Amino acid sequence: MQSVLTRFALEGAPVTSEPFGSGHINGTQLVRCSGGAEYVLQHINTTVFREPERLMRNIELVTGHLSGKVSDPRGVLRLVPALDGRSFAVEDDEYWRVYELVPDSVCYQSATPSLFYESAVAFGRFQNQLADFPAEQLSETIPLFHDTPTRYAAFHRAVSEDAFDRRAEVAPEIDFVLEFESFSHTLTDLQRSGELPVRVTHNDTKINNVLFDAKTDKALCVIDLDTVMPGLAVNDFGDAIRFGASTAAEDERDLGRVRLDLALYETYVKGYLSTCGTSLTKQELAMLPVGAKMMTLECGMRFLSDHIAGDVYFHISRQRQNLDRARTQFALLKEMDAHWDAMRRIVEEAARAL
Ligand code: GN1
Ligand code: MG
């Protein structure tokens, strides 16, 4: 790692480095240099992200565009170039990149209502600032990531292979997923017909992918840009709701605890629309609740597929954890159906106030 650092244009010589953050995919280190400059060094996981050069090109384009829009320099991640001018360095086929550390910032693993609101402000601002960026210039770092019908095809394959003999005991969950198969086309159909625009999307809109000002707890910027790619804004909204407006952990075993917190939902709607409401189309606004359902369905189906396939994608720390995760998503989906009118009304009211 010392040797890879010499390939970047750092201010001063690296003095210390320590593990940093809580990401599960890339390896991240905080590097301190003589003279006081601080950097974030990341090793890119090329098993998950198979085309690191195209991924880095995406990040260059997006951070370049954002830096022309922010007033606070902390409003965007800043890449530190390598000495050869590229935005990354390669050593023994391993890919590395360096960001400037965002000064006086803090990252949270769980949200209070006001932090959740601020995270919505940040993701909405990200959407708004990139609304004039031509999304087709970005590559898909994980192809067909939120193409829910394609996820169904993978689900059907996992079920028919049944590699671990688990199909029989999850028959009710399989049936539940199948009930939604025609619904699963809703957003991709609207995308194909041009009724929903393809935009620059983040694809991992959780609270821990936002940096906050350490003093004021105001959102500064969005981080974890590896999955930034062309997609639907409603899915970014939906994934944030799926994760942040549920009253229970993603792997909760007591399904009675899984509720949709409508107050948190409303909080996120208001924060999100405060920064990107005017750049979304009428159809996008109308489809926001569908995005929440779609991401919940898709994620639950991905967990269930992975359980059936033997836990090959989502890391587990106990047996049946992916099944538990799938069940919480299905419980949340039922909650959304039960509160469907309210979910729509909350968006309509917030949109009217724009
Ligand atoms: C994965 O790695 P993490 O936890 O940020 C997944 C998301 C899922 C999420 C469910 C690249 O995100 O799509 O919503 O798990 N990311 C990828 O917890 O597949
Ligand atoms: Mg992250």
Percent strand equals 5-15%
Largest sheet: 5 strands, antiparallel
Question: If you average the pLDDT, what whole number results?
Answer: 96
Number of domains: 2
- Classification by helices and strands: alpha+beta
Q: Please write the string of helix (H) and strand (E) elements.
A: HEEEHEEEHHHHEEEEHHHHH
Could you say what the CATH topology of the largest domain is called? Aminoglycoside 3'-phosphotransferase, Chain: A, domain 2
CATH H-tier superfamily of the largest domain: Aminoglycoside phosphotransferase (APH), C-terminal lobe
Shape: globular
- What strand line-up does the widest sheet have? 1-2-3-5-4
Rg, Å, rounded: 21 Å
Task: Give the distinct bound molecules.
Answer: 2-acetamido-2-deoxy-1-O-phosphono-alpha-D-glucopyranose, magnesium ion
How would you summarize this macromolecular structure in one to three sentences?
This protein is α+β, with helices and mostly antiparallel strands. The chain contains eleven helices and ten strands.
Molecular structure report:
By secondary structure, this protein is of the alpha+beta class. It has two domains: 2-103, Phosphorylase Kinase, domain 1, CATH 3.30.200; 113-352, Aminoglycoside 3'-phosphotransferase, Chain: A, domain 2 (Alpha-Beta Complex), CATH 3.90.1200. 43% of the residues lie in helices and 13% in strands. It has eleven helices and ten strands. It has helices spanning 2-5, 52-67, 113-129, 148-161, 171-179, 186-192, 233-244, 262-276, 282-309, 321-338, 340-352; strands at 14-19, 27-33, 38-43, 89-91, 94-100, 105-106, 199-201, 210-213, 219-222, 229-231. Strands 1-2-3-5-4 form a five-stranded antiparallel beta sheet. Strands 6-8-9 form a three-stranded antiparallel beta sheet. Strands 7-10 form a two-stranded antiparallel sheet. Strand 8 and strand 9 (219-222) form a beta hairpin. Helix 4 (148-161) packs parallel to helix 9. The protein is globular. The model has no long low-confidence stretch (mean pLDDT 96).
